Amino acid sequence: MGRRAFLGVELSAGGVALAAGAAAGCQLAGGQRSAGPGAGPAGASARPGGCGPVAGASRQLRGAWVASFKHLDWPSRPGLPAAAAQRELAGLLDLAARLRLNAVLLQVRPTADALYPSRYEPWSKWLTGTQGTSPGYDPLEFAVNAAHDRGLELHAWFNPFRVSEQPGRSRLTAAHPARQHPDWVVPYAGQLWYDPGHPAVRALAVDVIAEVTRGYDIDGVHLDDYFYPYPAGGLAFADDATFRRYGGGFASRGDWRRHNVDLLVAAVSATVRNIRPWAVFGVSPFGIWRNASADPAGSRTTGLQAYDDLFADTLGWIRAGLLDYVAPQLYWEMTNPRAPYQELVRWWSRAVTGTPAQLYAGQAAYLAAAWPDPGEIPRHVAFDRSEPAVTGELFFHARSLATGALGVRLAGEFASAAYPPVPQRLRRWLRAPQPPPRAGWAHRDKIACAAGGTT
């Protein structure tokens, strides 16, 4: 089923009636679903019936990160038989539907490997336990179909530069790009990382994202907060050779590193919009851009700074119009003295105001049980309703919603259905003349219906 086409269908998952589409619900013929890699949406030829309002529905992205790295969410262990792995993922998607979420962000490139058959990178070891070994089916194709069947968007989540959580290149498959091109790789703090300063590394990341964007009926592309690695014990990231080769003309290595990440984000943005203009592109940065003590434009916080420590200038990307949404990881309590939740929400609200970017608040569901106040995250959600710029909530990570009382409390917070917002760029695209339909193109009338009839 094409981009947002399925979102207008009222579904029933786990006994919970869902209207997980746009504020104008479309009735589609039959139970269409995506066709898988290269084929385009199988339901693209179906025409929607009348579009009308769905009672009680609002515009809000409600999503959960589904992490494959270290088996945080799925699969829960390596080597699960295909049927068992599929049941496990279906269970997480059913949970999302019961909580009236409307999106999942599936980690498809956790460590320079793939949860789908890739021409560029090996099968992920997080599937079978052995990198390069096929699980016997296409997990991403299954995930897209299963999510859409439940009225959920599926955003493909990529880690652009992490190669391995261990330091030995010999433990990678022989054909792995990191073994074929050792000059692309920097060992750091017991891990392996691609060097973002190498143009071929950025090109590989863009090629991988293009491969998925072209081959699967995904609804979005998502990058996480790992650009340059988080600082570890004062260790230096050894990119001296790359800086000597490519860093001429920059006042500092920090400026050059930010430029490298800027180039990646701009290239991914252009790639997604060119291949699948109805898909959204977003980033989930570390929650502090800069502290006010370092920059008057920063937040009244005293923590690690994404701009200076991870070389991620998210504010610059927002102002440049590169993002359809930003989902900062606001993983602090309201009473945290170094980074109060309310201060950061207000700062990011100001950051997106007057720009095309939607703001979704990233919530630390995995910390809910450890925080003294069990109502901390529900209070975040309630507070966000008072901030008009906040148009969504994302929870890290999916299994955290299945344990403890958080899922129950969120079910109360999300008592009625919500539809994902339609970003400004997509609304403009809907109004523009379209080229003739091609393979993989979602029919405009479906998307227009999902956009509330905006054409």
Question: What would you say this structure looks like, in words?
Answer:
It is globular, with a radius of gyration of 21 Å. It has helices spanning 82-98, 125-128, 139-149, 177-180, 199-215, 240-246, 253-275, 306-310, 314-319, 341-352, 376-384, 406-413, 424-431, 444-450; strands at residues 10-13, 16-19, 24-26, 51-53, 58-59, 61-66, 103-109, 153-158, 162-164, 185-188, 191-194, 220-223, 280-283, 325-326, 358-363, 390-395, 418-419. Helix 1 (82-98) links the parallel strand 6 and strand 7. The strands form five sheets. It has an eight-stranded parallel barrel with strand order 6-7-8-12-13-14-15-16, surrounded by five helices. The chain has a single domain, classed as Alpha-Beta Barrel (TIM Barrel), CATH 3.20.20. Helix 1 (82-98) packs parallel to helix 3. The longest helix is centred in the middle third of the chain and has 23 residues, at 253-275. It has 455 residues and is of the alpha/beta class. It is built from 14 helices and 17 strands. It is 30% helix and 15% strand.
Inertia-based shape: globular
Helix content: 25-40%
Physical arrangement of strands within the biggest beta sheet = 6-7-8-12-13-14-15-16
Q: Structural class from helices and strands?
A: alpha/beta
The CA-CA distance between the termini, in Å, is 20 Å
Total strand count, please?
17
Going by CATH, the homologous superfamily would be Glycosidases
CATH class category: Alpha Beta
CATH overall fold name: TIM Barrel
CATH architectural arrangement = Alpha-Beta Barrel
Percentage beta strand:
15-25%
- pLDDT averaged over residues: 86
